Amino acid sequence: MREVAIVGIGMTPVDEHWDKSIRELAAEAVLLALEDAQRESVDALFVGNMLSGLISQQENLGALVADWTGLRYTEAIKVEAACSSGAAAVRQALIAVASGYIDSAIAVGVEKMTEARGSEVTAALATAADADYEVAHGVSFVALNALIMQRYMHEYGWQHAHFAPFSINAHANALTNPYARLREKIDEQDYAKAKMIAYPINLLDASPIGDGAAAVLLVPRETLRKNGKPIIKIAGSAAATDSIAIHDRKDPLWLRAAEISAKKAFSQAGVGPKEIDFFELHDAFSIMSALSLEACGFAQRGQGPRLALEGQITLKGKLPITTMGGLKARGHPVGATGVYQIVEAVLQLRGAAGENQVPDAKIGMTQNIGGSGSNIITHILVRE
Amino acid sequence: MEVPRHWRLRKQRYGLVGEACPHCESKLFPPRDVCPECGKDAREPYQFSGRGEVYSFTTVYEPPTGFEEYAPYTVALVKLEEGPMVTAQLTDVNSKDVKIGMPVEMVTRKIRTDGDERGMIIYGYKFRPVLQKS
Q1: Looking at residue B15, what is its pLDDT?
Q2: Is residue A253 part of a domain?
Q3: Shortest CA distance from A198: residue in chain B
């Protein structure tokens, strides 16, 4: 197996892109990544996407995006793993390049969500859950997370207000990220008063949907020469699954797949939670931030909110998270999100994160969660 | 088009029929062919009592397509007395009165209508607070 480096990144702002179709969004990110890497082609293209069939009535995205980016005839497929489709595409590209079968690959995550009405998007997102035994009972994706959060608060004694720092931090960081969907500051009062969606989850616990695409270009590390520019390597990459229905989990309050994939990624990279300089976690809902921090070993069981309450998760804290706004405020274009996280991690490691820069960031971690915890992919990136 | 799916799931939706693993005696709902507890074959049907308690609950104000006319409604994770957990709506109860740990029992109720007035009416399990014997 060869070491793999990220030499190109590209992304569109997360927004309501009424003027752009799914192919145009994906193409924009791919072309930016090619330009950033100063290349004209790659050997393979992996498109991470969840909802194109349901929302844009368009599948076969691999060939479509290849054709629309001047890569016609290039090997290309779509990779689907619910909300973790983006990181799944990056991992497939990584495996392809590391194996030696492919010498360069682009992973692009793309989602076009404003093509349908709100309730249709809600129904489409619910396809990440168990159709026969969860969704058939009228459970939305938000409701599934609400079931987890309600029990979590009951079991560990947290109040709703204790989760506020997660959303406040995400919004504060998005303020200076030009690619973020929600560039507005919020405070405790806004959080407490936000519209209820599914108790205890309100609008400021939940990440907004949006249109967007992000891409990374991977090549073998051995093909790169040191020329003053930092080399960003993928030092750890691991994926794990759990039951897709929450009711089938051994412990609904523990993200076992996060624990497994994080442990594997730590071991591959030869680091532990203490060495991580920043963590792009999957804050689709504030409860997911807490569970992810616990499962990855950054917090004790049931103590996820404490890190946030102590101010450790801000850009100046011990473990900055969601440094560019996270899903909560950068936005959550579902199948693109995992690639946005990795693009943002590369910006941090290149020292190119502008006002959001984590000082002297050398080791970054990203974690993309599919479903309500059923498919979890962890990456650790290192600046050489 | 829900007809084949609903027909296929009728024993589960009307009768809460799952499986008992002959190897480790775990009770499974929904039925599946490999026991998640011991990894061996599990193919013996087992009918659950329908009694359990609320593990967690929430009220849905923004429902997915097909459920708009029923919102707001309360859904719960119900821990069955035989062990497994199921996701289902709560019924015959005001959402304000629902508590974690509350004993509930299965009843058959209308879940929703499939499509327009010519569509199939889908019935299935919901759970209500256990009725006191008079």
Answers
A1: 96
A2: yes
A3: B60
Phi and psi for A288 in degrees, rounded to 5? -65, -30
Question: Is the CA virtual torsion A98, A327, A264, A127 positive or negative?
Answer: negative
For residue B121, tell me if it sits in a domain: yes
The answer as to whether A128 is a domain residue is no
Look at residue B134 and tell me whether its pLDDT is greater than 70.
no
Domain span at residue A80 reads 4-117+210-223
Query: Tens of pLDDT along A15-35?
Result: 999 999 999 999 999 999 999
A83 counts as catalytic: yes
Question: Could you tell me if A13 and A48 lie in one domain?
Answer: yes
Q: Give yes or no for a contact between A36 and A95, defined as CB atoms under 8 angstroms apart.
A: no
Do A198 and A219 reside in the same domain of the chain? no
A72 lies in the same domain as A218: yes
Do the domain assignments include residue A129? no
> For A208-241, what is each residue's pLDDT tens digit?
999 999 999 999 999 999 888 899 999 999 999 9
Q: How many domains does chain A have?
A: 2
Quote the strand ranges of chain A, DSSP E.
Answer: 4-11, 44-48, 75-79, 105-111, 196-198, 201-202, 212-220, 232-241, 278-280, 363-370, 375-383
Contact A122 B87 (CB under 8 A): no
DSSP A285: B
Output the domain CATH number for residue A171: 3.40.47.10
Catalytic residue, candidates A17, A162, A332, A379: A332
Domain around B73: 3-129
pLDDT at B1: 58
Distance from CA of B11 to the nearest CA of A (A): 13
**A198 and B58 in contact by Cβ < 8 A?**
yes
Are A36 and A42 a contacting pair, CB within 8 Å? Answer: no
Query: Does a structural domain hold residue B65?
Result: yes
Residue B64: which pLDDT band, with cuts at 50, 70 and 90?
confident
pLDDT at residue A122, rounded to an integer: 87
Residues of B in contact with A242 (CB under 8 A): none
Same domain (yes/no): A81, A55? yes
- A216 plus A261 within the same structural domain: no
Q: Is A39 helix (H, G, I), strand (E, B) or coil?
A: coil
ipTM summary value = 0.95
Please tell me what DSSP assigns to residue A43. S
Q: Which residues of chain A have pLDDT under 50?
A: none
Same domain, A254 and A294: yes
Which candidate from A120, A147, A245 shows the least CB-CB separation from B56? A147
pTM of the predicted protein model: 0.97
